[in-house]
Design a protein that fits this description.
Elements (H helix, E strand, L loop, with lengths): L1 H23 L9 E5 L7 E7 L2 E7 L7 H13 L7 E5 L4 E5 L6 H5 L4 H4 L1 H11 L11 H8 L1 H10 L6 H20 L2 E4 L8 E3 L5 E3 L6 E4 L2 H7 L8 H15 L2 H6 L2 H28 L10 H12 L6 H16 L16
Antiparallel strand pairs: 1-2, 2-3, 3-5, 4-5, 6-9, 7-8
Length: 354
């Protein structure tokens, strides 16, 4: 009850602050403003909307003990000035962890996917990603060996051990270690660019102008060229076929990758780097989804684990370097997931993960 009271009190304080911030900006609030919660994300941040005849705005609640708003503000300012369509920051109170933001609406890019061919629906997303990758932001942290390995450790720690209840043998631990090392070396060998780090359908919004609005960018780093593209095309929340993925990778390489980058990375090497980078991300994401359920009580992400694991299995089975890993995933990990009580009613298509 105390925790719920704190949440209510923060929400009330945020609403009061938001109304005062709008008044300070000269927004006429004579008409009633509607206050409503907006879907949150996988962090401690929460979002609310104030809307009425005078307009609508997003209020971010980022508790200072859990979230640091400063990276968000720095990146938002740099990207906004560079023409990247991120929400304009209209007011801030870092002591309370409150931000007043431009509202991009609710038209997530994933909604368009249900109506359009992905090659058409994602043109604006590719163009915006290409602009992000050309930015110069040397102050961003590096997506280095330590961070790559720390992310992949979530797979054995949270997904295998705590969710599936698997205890790995020394030989199995060695298989994982070798895979992690190979993926780290491959990621670090790629051209290093600005990386959003969560560039997928739930963080991209279709704007009335036809542009794509970009949100949830506060964890941006300098990292591998293919990272954001694989986040988009092997999206844990959207079902992509291998043919669709391959066609979109080709399109991005040919039409959106600068000639200087194409000179550094051949088409075949780009595809290979893309799939290997995806394996690193999928190991991380399986672990994060398990942790969100077990530690944070967020069960909504459990439904996305099978799709994420399927991406991992398909990629691993496509390269001889990962043959042993692929066999282990199919023989040990997949059966454990299929037999888990949480997935007792899951429909597993014939030939799944093959």
């Amino acid at each position: 009850m105390a925790g719920e009271r704190v949440k209510v009190d923060r929400a009330q304080a945020l609403e009061i602050w938001g109304r005062e911030a709008l008044a300070h900006l000269g927004v006429e609030q004579s008409a009633e403003l509607l206050w409503q919660a907006v879907s949150g994300d996988a962090s401690f941040r929460r979002y609310f909307r104030l809307s009425g005849a005078c307009g609508q705005w997003i209020l971010m609640d980022a508790p200072p003990e859990h979230e640091d708003c400063r990276p968000f503000l720095r990146i938002a300012d740099t990207w906004y000035q560079a023409g990247i369509r991120v929400p304009q920051v209209l007011a801030k109170d870092l002591a309370q962890g409150f931000l007043l933001l431009e509202d991009f609406g609710d038209q997530l890019l994933r909604i368009d996917l249900e109506k359009q061919d992905p090659l058409l629906a994602y043109q604006s997303a590719f163009a915006e990603l290409a602009r992000i990758q050309t930015l110069s932001m040397p102050s961003l942290p590096e997506y280095d060996r330590a961070l790559l390995r720390r992310e992949m450790s979530l797979f054995p720690d949270w997904f295998l051990s705590q969710l599936l209840g698997l205890t790995l043998t020394q030989a199995e631990q060695e298989i994982l270690h070798q895979v992690e090392e190979r993926l780290i070396l491959a990621a670090l060998a790629q051209p290093q660019v600005v990386v959003h780090r969560d560039y997928h359908s739930r963080n991209l919004l279709s704007l009335p102008t036809g542009a794509v609005g970009v949100i949830d960018f506060q964890d941006a780093v300098i990292g591998a060229l293919t990272y954001d593209l694989v986040s988009l095309l092997k999206d844990s929340y959207v079902e992509w076929s291998e043919a669709q993925v391959a066609a979109c990778v080709d399109l991005f390489y040919q039409q959106y990758l600068p000639a200087a980058m194409q000179a550094q990375v051949s088409r075949n090497d780009f595809h290979r780097a893309f799939h290997w980078m995806g394996m690193q991300r999928q190991l991380k994401v399986c672990g994060i989804f398990a942790r969100l359920y077990l530690r944070d009580g967020k069960a909504g992400y459990l439904a996305d684990i099978p799709r994420t694991l399927n991406y991992l299995l398909r990629a691993a089975s496509s390269f001889p370097e990962f043959a042993e890993f692929s066999h282990w995933l199919s023989a040990r990990v997949l059966p454990a997931l299929q037999q888990h009580p949480l997935y007792s009613e899951q429909v597993w298509p014939e030939g799944w993960a093959k």
